[in-house]
Structures are given as structure tokens and as C-alpha cells.
Amino acid sequence: MTTNNKINLTTFLKENSKDNAINEILSCVQKASDEISVLLENGYFDDTLEKKLETNESGDLQSPLDMLSNNIFINLLKDHPDVLGIVSEELEHPYYFDDHKKAQYVLMIDPLDGSANLPINAAVSTIFSIVKIDDDKVGASKDELLDHLLKISPNPVCAGYVVYSFTTYLMFTTGDGVHGFNLNQETGEFILVHHHVKIPEDTHMVAVNSSNKLYWNESVTKYLKDRFENPNVKKGYNMRWYASVGVELHRILLQGGIFLYPTTSNGKPHGVLRKLYEAYPIAMLIEQAGGSATNCIDKMTSIPPTHLHEKTPMAFGSTNEVNALSNS
Known about the structure:
- This protein is an alpha+beta fold.
- Helix content is 30%, strand content 24%.
- It has an eight-stranded mixed beta sheet, sandwiched between helices. Strands 12-11-13-17-15 form a five-stranded mixed beta sheet, sandwiched between helices. Strands 1-2 form a two-stranded antiparallel sheet.
- A hairpin with a 4-residue loop joins β9 and β10 (189-194).
- α1 (9-16) packs antiparallel against α2 and α2 (20-41) runs antiparallel to α3.
């Protein structure tokens, strides 16, 4: 639901969260998001949008702003004693803060999702989650920590995202509903605008890349034909495709809908979304808002990763549509 109360993020966290470490990490996310929004506004003025694209560890094109955003988070968290390190889509390995070996929190992040949309001035996002190291793994070797991070990544203690557009939105959950904040550019404060967001169970909005329709499997094809070619459907379905999962997530949380990126037979047998940096945080947010998230068949968080940059097919959004897809 929307709210007119002028509560800023700092006050909200003090009143609603008892975990000071998570509160401090979210405060760092707030500061980083403010810096990134300024960075994006100035993109063309310092030529960062026009520099040559490279490929990151997930196989996606990487813009200079991807790494600049990544480094903003590292620089803000490196002095935070509760943060052990960062696991990022843009980095091959976890980035540990060597003087924080007793810390228990790790930020998992896609620093700038949808950055290929930047040259056309379209919205982009940051997607993140926070995981907590078990007590008996504190101070473990890097190999042990990696195995442990993979084990706990499907069940973070906090998940969220930031959308950068004509306004900047921060949405997050710590397991007590999804709450949204809008950045006041004059004060640098995030103000509460959405409290306990809920996704409707039913929807007539589908986000899917229909250019892949020749390469979908039989169940996905059946599900979408039933939505768009069935004369018995009383209310027609509508289609959206933004090519940025964080922005699609934002729309679905506020308006309902289903997002779908299945496996395809044209070179994407494992889908395109990264489990750690996109699928798991999105799943937590969606479920906390009353929706469902799957790998198009099974519950997303029931499927552990085998490596840091593993990809997955995914469907998320309004529960009845996600269930209908799984049962197709």
C-alpha cells in the first residue's frame, strides 16, 4: 500500500528492524544508490557511456558504469566491520575485506542491471541480497566460505533493489514485508512511499521476450498460447518486455504480472538470470509480497547453486499465473 507519511529510511529502520548490522548495510546501500544516481545523470558528460563494452564473469556485456557502480559499493562497505565481503556479478571471485575476518554478513549484488539500456536513457537497477554466515563458519578458509556462501545464498536475511529513472526507488525486505522508498534529490534522503507491498494473485500482464517463441519448450509454448490465442479467455492478456529484470520486478511488485524467461534451444539452455545476484533476491521479494517465484517448474529457493555465476530460467509474479505455468 502507498503511504503519505514522511518517514525516511533511517527512521524506518530504527523503528522496524532490531538488527543493527543489517540497518547499517542498508544505510550503505542508500548512500551507494545516491552516488550511482548522480553517476548516471552525469554519464555522457564524462564519456563513460561511450567507452568500449567488455564481458563480465557472467558472460554479459559490461559497461564502465557497471564497474564504477561495483566499486562504489566496495568503497562504502570496506570500513563496515560487520561486512565480510561482496560477491558481485562483475567479479570472478568473492571480494573479501581482509581485516573483517570475524564479520558475518556478505552482500551479493548485481550493481547495475540492464546497463545495455543506458545509451537510450532507459531505467536500470541495482539488485542485492544480504546473507549471514553461520557462527561455526566465521573465520573459515576461503574455500570453506565459498561452499557455505553457495549453501546459504537461496535464503538471504535481506533482499532489495534500486531502480534509477526520473526518480530513484529503493525497495527491500528483511522478512517482514516489502517496503519502498523514493529518493529526495534535494536532501539525499529516501522517503517511505510503499508499505507492505502486495502482489495480486491474478493478472493479465505477461513480461516475456517473444522473439524467442520458436525456441521455447512445449509447456511454455502451451502456457503462452492459452493466454494470447485462446478465444475463451474473457479478458485479453497484455505483453510487456523491458529487457531489464529489475525494472520488470518493480512494475510487477506495484501493478502485478508475471515475468518469464525460460530455457531456450537457441543457446540459452540454462536461462539468463544469475541465481545469486538476481533470482534469489527477487524470489525473496516476490514471496514477501505474496507472489511466487520458480525456475518455471519448482520453487526458486529450493534449488541451490553449484557455482557463483550460475544461471537459471525463472518465472515470478502473481501466484495463480506462476502456478499455471508450472502445471502446463
